[in-house]
Amino acid sequence: MKIALSLCLLLTSLSLSAQFVAKMEIKEPIKGLCNEKDVYAILPIGDQKEAICPVSEEEIARRLDSTVVFLKEHQDFKGKGMVSVIINCKGEVVKCEMDNKTKYPELDKQIVAVFAVLGQWKAGKIGKKEVDSVKLFSFEIKNGKISLN
């Protein structure tokens, strides 16, 4: 079941020091969120810190290349996509889905499965408060390999 989720690109000023975040609109409940009314796409400006993944982007790419069977069977496939990972205020992944799909549901499913099990994240922060946040990963597929952008 796909949960309709959209980023509100309404930037909300948090203080007079020009700190901005994009607030997400949650259309269906997501189990595990600390506060479903306050889920942010954080721009790392000032005392705002986006959620930090426990593994590097290079390691994510390595895991994708070793795990995604679709690409081993379709080495000539070229495409682009984007995955959104929603991390709660405790650093737990509570939702992971494709935002821009690749046109192949099986490929999308295999890619999402890798992002869903990256481990315990460091939660995003606004000021000193840990908050629910979303992290977007865009990728490109060429010659049977996935690279993160």
Structure description:
With 149 residues, this protein is an alpha+beta fold. The protein has one domain. It has 3 helices and 9 strands. Strands 1, 2, 3, 4, 5, 6, 7, 8 and 9 form a 9-stranded mixed beta sheet that branches. Strand 8 (129-142) and strand 9 form a beta hairpin. The protein is elongated.
Topology (elements, then pairings):
Elements: E1 5-15, E2 19-26, E3 39-42, E4 48-49, H1 57-67, H2 69-73, E5 79-87, E6 93-100, H3 105-116, E7 124-126, E8 129-142, E9 145-148
Parallel strand pairs: 3-8
Antiparallel strand pairs: 1-2, 2-3, 4-7, 5-6, 5-8, 7-8, 8-9
Helix pairs in contact: 1-3
How many strands?
9
Which consecutive residue ranges, at least 5 long each, have pLDDT under 50? Answer: 1-18
Multimerization state? single chain
Q: What structural class should be given to the helix and strand makeup?
A: alpha+beta
Number of helices: 3
Distance between the termini: 27 Å
What are the secondary-structure elements, in order, as H or E?
Answer: EEEEHHEEHEEE
Please give the largest β-sheet.
9 strands, mixed
Number of domains: 1
Proportion in β-strands: 35-45%
Question: How confident overall, as mean pLDDT?
Answer: 87
Helix content: 10-25%
Radius of gyration: 16 Å
Estimate the global geometry from the Cα principal axes: elongated
